[in-house]
Design goal:
The complex is a heterodimer of chains A (about 260) and B (about 1050). With about 260 residues, chain A is mostly beta strands. Chain A has a single domain (about 1-245), classed as Lipoprotein localisation LolA/LolB/LppX (outer membrane lipoprotein receptor (LolB), chain A). Chain A has three helices and 13 strands; from the N terminus they run H-H-E-E-E-E-E-E-H-E-E-E-E-E-E-E. A 13-stranded antiparallel sheet of chain A has the order 6-5-4-3-2-1-13-12-11-10-9-8-7. In chain A, a hairpin with a 2-residue loop joins strand 7 and strand 8 (about 150-160). Among the domains of chain B are: about 390-475; about 875-1025. In chain B, a hairpin with an 8-residue loop joins strand 6 and strand 7. The two termini of chain B are about 30 Å apart. In chain B, about 55% of the residues are buried. The chains are: A mainly beta (about 260), B alpha+beta (about 1050). At the A-B interface, strand 8, strand 9, strand 11 and strand 12 of A face helix 1 and strand 1 of B.
Amino acid sequence: MKTLKFISMGVLFLLGTLVIKAQTADEIISNFIENTGGLDAWKSLKALKFEGNVDIGQGITIPIEVISTNDGKTMIKANFQGQNFYQTVYDGETLWGTNQMTMQAEKSDAEATANYKNEANDFPDPFIDYKEKGYTVELIGNETIEGTDTYKIKLVKEPVMVDGKEEQDISFYYFDTENFVPIVVETEINSGPAAGMVSQTKLSDYQEVDGLYFAFSIVDGIKGQPGGQGVTITSISLNPEVDESIFAFPEPVSTGETKE
Amino acid sequence: MKRFLYLAIITFFALPSAIAQEISLKGQELFGDIKARQIGPALMSGRINDIEMHPTDPRVMYVGAAGGGVWKSIDGGATFAPIFDEYVQSIGVVKLDPKRPDEVIWVGTGEIWTRNSVSIGNGLYKSTDGGKTWKEIPGFENSERIASIAINPNNTDEVYVGVLGALWSDSTVRGVYKTTDGGQTWIQVLYLNPSTGAGDVVMDPEDPRILYASMWQFRRTAWSFNSGGISSGLYKSMDAGATWKKIQEGFPSGPLGRIAIAMAPSDHNRLYAVLETGEKTTNGLWTSPDAGASWQHLNSDFGLTVRPFYFSRITIDPRDPNTIIKAGLTGSISRDGGKTFKDLGNMHGDIHDIAFHIHESDILFCGTDGGLYRSWNGGGTLEIVENLPISQFYQISVDNASPYHIYGGLQDNGSWWGPNSSPAGVNGRDWNSVGAGDGFRVLKHPTKNIIYSEMQGAENVWRYDIDRKKTKNIQPLEEKGKSKLRFNWNAPMALSAHNPDRFYMGSQYLHKSDDMGDTWTIISPDLTTNDASKQNQESSGGLSMDNSGAENHTTLFTIAESPLDENTIWVGTDDGNVQVTTDGGKTWNNVTPNLIGVPANTWVYHIEASVHGKGTAYAVFDGHTRGDFNTYVLKTTDFGKTWTNIVSDAIEKNAFARNIQEDYENENLLFLGTEFGLYITIDGGQNWSKFTNNMPSVAVHFIDLQKEANDLVMGTHGRGVIIIDDISPLRFLNQEVLSKDVHFFGTKPFTMTEQSGFAGSEVSETEFVGPSKASGARIVYYLKKRHTFGKMELEIQDMEGNKVATLSPGKSKGINVVNWEYTSGAPKMADAKTLSFSGFTPKRVPAGMYKVVLTKGKDRYEHTIELKYDETSLATLEERKEQERMTQVMFDMVEDLAYMVYQITEYQKAAQALILNHPKDKKPAEKLYDALERLRKDLVITTGDNYVGTAEPRLREKMGTLYSNIASSYDGVSASQMQNFRLISGEFELAQKRFEDILKKEGSKFESVLKKNAMELPGLLQKNTYLGKD
């Protein structure tokens, strides 16, 4: 569900920007942010709720719900056969998810939690106030991706720890040169079986929600490899009421079950 | 506002088409989403040129492959991933910045172990982000081969680059270059002459002003190699490259060949050098105890002197100046300072580079002609790295089986055949050996289970009977009255489209057999120039004789019998002749003088006899062995009388070509294999576009097009087999299609292949596995513009318009490919405490016609496809229909149960609410709740977990299992399944009855207390709504 961290990408499309030929990374990002309803509109967001479906192939989808807040809390919930599966739930301190064998909540390891804490300031989008956050951006150049001319921008965020070693956190955003919307995001996978490969997220179906634009289709895969997993967003609500208790790690309780 | 915005978008996007300009038939955007599939193999891997260890982090290392790019490991050498795919794949050296090794990587391109089949490089590259992005450093575009890089550890902007330079020609871009500003400006600090380049450049890290450089005079032609001359020598600079002097005190006078130089990391005055002198008493290993002031000869054993041009590297244990390893046929290790050596342990032969682990001398890595090896015991035992798919194919072919197989021969790795796709991906086990030595052409008999393969110089030509496992050597032999046969290293063979038993081979003559190689007839005169000056291979090598057969010249190289006429046969020779016969070899027409724009004697690498005309053929010429890297492709339609150049400027500089493949249906669709990757034209060569979708810039040596699948199969010289699945949509790209907003490409009916089995998941994570071909119906459409704004959906419907499946559409500009697995979703399972995996079994659709409906905002585009049953099915049509019917019955039953459990739960919730709010009336509610709970516990699992804490299966699990068994079966419904069905449907009927009874009895009492308390019955969702079908 790595995909979901890109969910908060949004863009407001303005005709006026089309005639401006962006030259620098700063200008491109500035176009992107300013035209998405402006920095103020994005920064006034307190929370976001997405509902949608994850396509797991063979025509089977699983409904999901994602809530994220401007103080870095997140929750992803999938429901299947009456069971709730939680993933990437974070209350500001503890990162946890559901173990699929026991269906019980389990904490993520310290490294993953520390890395996730770094993401807290990326609500609703990593490019907002990127300089203040200490991020660096670089325009790598024009590249054709998805058959489309794009600006390839490199974003370097806070370093992450990978199996005990500090690594740079680098991702590449491909902004459509015509409208400054990111259509593809690439990040190198730094651990696990696909380590060294590049994850590729395709963004499309941008639609407006109360003045802000969001990608309603997010397809995550490995660059160059067939397949991928799609998330289709069915609804987005801005500043929903959020019950803070949903982020808290549920301490184990006796199930009270008796063996039959 | 939203409406305004969309209008604005539409208006803007409409503008360009109003101008109605012609759409360019080139550019990456044509291909959209069509991606190449890299299937390796990695089990025989390929030649490694250089290994680079991270100086402080033992998890990180790099290898530079001879033809397969740069690979990075972040797990200590367990697995590797490519990081240089967009650039030339022939690598000379990889070097990390000593101060910023995580960020700054230098790559010098162009392999430096200068065998006959080497690829070329095109300069120097630098990454400042650990290999994620690269910049070309100007000034080295014509360097061809970069051998070494030395970086001042105190000031890493000071870098020295050793350029070996051009192999096949004179060049002034050679010697040692220096930058002091991180690569922005360069000075050539050591240059001797146009035929002498720099090999090793070594810096003393304690005093970076001290440099050593080995200079080598060398030259290769297509027919000979020369190593050595008076310009070769060993040089030292004490002033950071400003001045250099020879340090050869003790070396023999006279010409020298290739020289390797190394400094002991633990003793900077101790140097080792390997000299090529051609003389036993001076050849091989030397050492200097005093930083090059004096030298002593140590050893001239075979391992120290073998093929210096191919093996010229010494690696010294970083912790022990007396432990040294010399690259070689087997690799040799000394633990007594070079006095004596023993071979390294068993691994693939031809070791080019060795690197010690940064902390532990027992761990070392060897780069060979057959990949990278690891040792954990100081080089005694070696294990191969299994995920470097850098195999170097010379040739490739496919058969006409379904699914088809791929055949090919590799540099120093024999010949192989394997499937294009495999259930769990194409892994090492899928490949079968069908030859030894170097492998080249491998051809499958068109109708029999027989494979032809060969080794270098046609020393063996094998006819292998796959079923009977019998091999026969069938190479053409010298005949009375004919000259000694001259076979190319990569000797041509060919089959006939007209006679399946016919088999051709080429020496300087064309040999024909109509009985699979048992009897040979020479059907031509010597078709080459027969230039005696190019036939003196015994004297090849220079100071060290090197007559491997690799330089055999004035030979046939390509043979093509016309698919339209068995009497028309084309032949191309390595010395530039194009010859054609139209009478089966009785007379030959040398059409070489009719060629245009191709210098005389340019190697005829490939002739493709066209299916589009008897007199039509393509010829590809490769001049790189004369230092000519131009792209030469000519076409004739009149048996070679006249020729047209079909190369355009869009093909990048130095991308010389080796192979062309025509499409069998659209004469204007052509595929060109070049030194730097694949180019495609859809207009007969007026415009060429480089194909880069998951396709590295690797040398494409041979291309075949599989006729049934329309798959383009490439044999690359460095990245194994690369396939572009089904290129048929490219046939239909034209102005009309390109001007449409959406265009669906027509497809043949799809056969719903009925295959199941075991994927063999025990393949380890450290082994390369090539992706399988996507299965299912392949829905292909063209989008004029990438879909970014607004909704876009892709649905399969039956012909009445009922939804069957929703697919995730591709949204690229250009061609998009979406696969549908012939399924229409899985049933919704009843809620329970644990998961029923039957809920992941989809229902397959019946054969027939289906609509593909694409909607983009308000626009709707339709296309029809046809699905057919698999003719190899185990089931009869009647049985299949019964299986479909029973699948549906079970599907509905599973969902009926789900809805029933939903209702139960809703009633239970209402009962709980009443208990909570009106405790004095709780009794009827409790009774209802308890009765429902007893029922629910029989229907679904309410305890345990998804693993070994699992509870006994309930009705949901039993029902689900039967559904899943029937739905996923390719056989008819069995008697046992029907028996089980009767049991389960009986149980379900009983359960339904129990539910009804409970509602009647406990339910009606509960209803009256509800009424009494002014509460309402639960508002149940309609069944279809609950099931998500509304």
